[in-house]
Write a structure and sequence with these properties.
143 residues, ANTAR, CheY-like_superfamily, GAF-like_dom_sf, alpha+beta, transcription regulation, single chain, transcription, rod-shaped
């Protein structure tokens, strides 16, 4: 938008806010991943007019850097979530294995039977396997 003041009534709230801050033009540069736009980098100017081809190229380079940064941050966040989920699963597996050992020892059954008993208890009580395992380990139940 080369001249915010002459933009008509399409975005009256934006127009008033931009003009009140001293901006006279704004230009949106797409932030793309392959052929998909994931956002826009907006360049605000205190003068009216279009951006020069050089400014447009610099703006696109800035948008590309911002896009890469956003994607990297998103990847790091998603990796952290997956790692946390895997760690929880591993911790649950350890508790379940301990409970199987307690059941096998106290009830003199093999590990397969201990697992079946633990699973049956979890289903009967509508608990997770980990909850049932913790109950066994803490001697709140005996299977």
């Amino acid at each position: 938008m080369g001249d915010i003041a002459a933009s008509g009534d399409t975005y009256p709230v934006f127009k008033a806010a931009a003009l009140s801050q001293g901006f006279r033009s704004v230009h949106a540069i797409p932030m793309r991943v392959r052929n998909r736009a994931i956002g826009a980098l907006n360049l605000f100017r205190t003068e009216t007019g279009d951006v020069t081809p050089e400014d447009a190229a610099i703006g696109q380079a800035m948008a590309d850097v911002a896009t890469i940064s956003i994607l990297q941050e998103r990847t790091v966040r998603e990796d952290a979530v997956v790692n946390e989920q895997l760690q929880r699963a591993l911790n649950s597996r350890i508790v379940i294995e301990q409970a199987k050992g307690v059941i096998a020892q106290l009830s003199t059954v093999d590990m397969d039977e201990a697992f079946k008993r633990l699973r049956a208890d979890a289903r009967a009580r509508n608990h997770t396997m980990r909850e049932s395992a913790e109950n066994v380990i803490n001697r709140r139940i005996r299977l």
